[in-house]
Amino acid sequence: MSTYHLAIIVGSNRRESTNRQLAEAIAKLLPGHIEVSYPQIDDLPLYNLDLESERPASVNRFTDEIRAADAVLIVTPEHNRSLPAVLKNALDWGSKPMDKNVWFDKPVAMTGASPGAMGAALAQQHLRQIMGILGSVVLGGEAYLQFRPGLITENGEIGEDSHQFVKSYMDRFVSLIEKLVQR
C-alpha cells in the first residue's frame, strides 16, 4: 500500500487552539499509510504582490510544504461568521502566482469546531467556496463540530459522541486521496 502525505493546516494562531487539539485528535484516526505534517501559517507576512519578486523564506517554506503534500485537511475556527485572517492569508500566498497555485487539483477536506451550535459551519462554507475557486478537489459533505466537553478526551482523542462521525468523514477523505493521487 502506498504512503500518502497529508498536510493538516490549523486555521488558528492561538497556542491553546481548540482546533489544533481537534486536528491532532483527527490525525490519530488516520490509517498508518497516511503521514501527517502541520504546516506553520502564523509567521507568513500579509500577502502583498510587492513581495512576489523576492518571496520571504516563510512563504517559500509554506508553499513547498503544500506542494509536496498529497492532500490537505484544513481545521479551522470561525471568526465573525467567516474564516480567520491568518488562514485566508495562507490560502492567498499558496494561490500566487497563478501558474504556481499549490491548491490546484489538490484533494482538500475541511472541518472545524467552535463553541457555538453551528460548529464553524459558515467558516467552512466560505472556505469551500475559496478552495473551489482555487481549483482544489474539495471533499463533499459537512463536518461541523461544536466544541463542548467530551469532544476531545483527556487522551487527546475524539470523544465517543463524535468519534464515528469524524472517523467516517476522514475515511471518505482517505478514499478520495487514494483515488485521486497518482503514484
Explain how this protein is built:
The chain is of the alpha/beta class and 183 residues long. It has a single domain, classed as Flavodoxin domain (Rossmann fold, 3-Layer(aba) Sandwich), CATH 3.40.50. Helix content is 37%, strand content 16%. It is built from five helices and six strands, in the order E-H-E-H-E-H-E-H-E-E-H. Strands 1, 2, 3, 4, 5 and 6 form a six-stranded parallel beta sheet that branches. Helix 3 links the parallel strand 3 and strand 4. The longest helix has 21 residues. It is globular, with a radius of gyration of 16 Å. The model has no long low-confidence stretch (mean pLDDT 95).
- The second-level CATH architecture is 3-Layer(aba) Sandwich
CATH superfamily: Flavodoxin domain
Overall geometric form? globular
Q: Quick check: average pLDDT?
A: 95
Number of helices: 5
Alpha carbon gyration radius: 16 Å
Give the distance, in angstroms, between the N- and C-terminal Cα atoms.
Answer: 11 Å
> What top-tier CATH class fits best?
Alpha Beta
Total tally of structural domains? 1
Helicity range: 25-40%
Helix-strand category: alpha/beta
Largest sheet: 6 strands, parallel
pLDDT below 50 for ≥5 consecutive residues: which ranges? none
Number of strands: 6
Give me the CATH fold name: Rossmann fold
Amount of beta strand = 15-25%
Order of helices and strands: EHEHEHEHEEH
